Amino acid sequence: MPSTPDPNEIEAVLLGGEAVYTRAQAIELSGADPELAGRVWRALGFPTQGDDEVIFAESDVEALRITNSLLQEGVLDDEGVVRFARAMGQTMARLADWQTSILSTLIFKDGEGGPDNPLMGQVKELLPDVERLLLHIWRRQLAASTSRTLAVMSNGNDIVPNYYPLIVGFADLVSFTTLSRELDEVELAGVVESFEASAADIVASGGGRVVKTLGDEVLYVADSAAEAADIALRLASGIRTHVEVPDVRVGVASGPVLTLHGDVFGTTVNRSSRLTSFARPGTVLIDDTLADELEGADGLQVVKVRARHAHGLGLIQPYALRRNFEPGEHPQA
What we know:
Blueprint lengths: L6 H9 L5 E2 H8 L3 H10 L10 E3 L1 H15 L5 H30 L10 H37 L8 E11 L2 H7 L2 H21 L3 E5 L3 E6 L2 H14 L9 E13 L2 E3 L1 H12 L5 E3 L1 H6 L6 E5 L3 E3 L3 E3 L2 E5 L10
Parallel strand pairs: 6-8
Antiparallel strand pairs: 1-2, 3-5, 3-6, 4-5, 6-7, 8-12, 9-12, 10-11
Helix pairs in contact: 2-4, 3-5, 8-9
């Protein structure tokens, strides 16, 4: 059984030094308000610690100093600081777990884990580069998000920055229940990762954005009807597992959406989800609003199907979305 790296050693490497301060000492050195510091710590996703526990490094104190300076300079108020902390904490927690799963696979590959594993040294050397990449990607994503928001605001004076029209799609891996019975946990995790990776690639290459993944389901948004339609059709036809049935069904709806905390909410999102549940494997269902937006689009067929009742939404009129086929070609059954 290979030995595992010392958690304290790993923490010291990642935090730039060992933990040397208690909670009270860290707060005093930073000049932060004790109550607000506690709220920020919890918003980041960490449990409340006892005053005598030595768990804070110098980098933690510096982070508190920066937070306090933002308050003193009036850049953010108390609630703004807590909201920022919550946004970063939740996002970074998921990112950290994802990255840890990748790195642990490499470090313990073929039973070679332990502090003497050469990969441990490589991870230490990689940290500065990874940190620079993380900062650049965050700046790139922030620039893209800001540009989208400004574009929305310039389209009309009555549009609220975080409530505006979007096209929302759900892609559901319908064979997941069958797969969960046939595969063990490791194999099933591989299928889920492959599905998420393939879906993310299709969405990004089509001009959309993945909002979140839920194991056997992917939620994405797009700004134009044409992009959303192309993404949906590629998702429905382009993702396959070993189960010999069409694997993905997609529902897409167009309308106003509330964007909050990196997620999307509202009736449009709910309508998209219900359309997905109505769709047969390998097909795409869209709502009437998107059907109107796609009217006359080259290469696409929009076919009215039976109206369905959705709890909480009333009667929904779905439309089947398909590609046009040249003479001699035949759609898949």
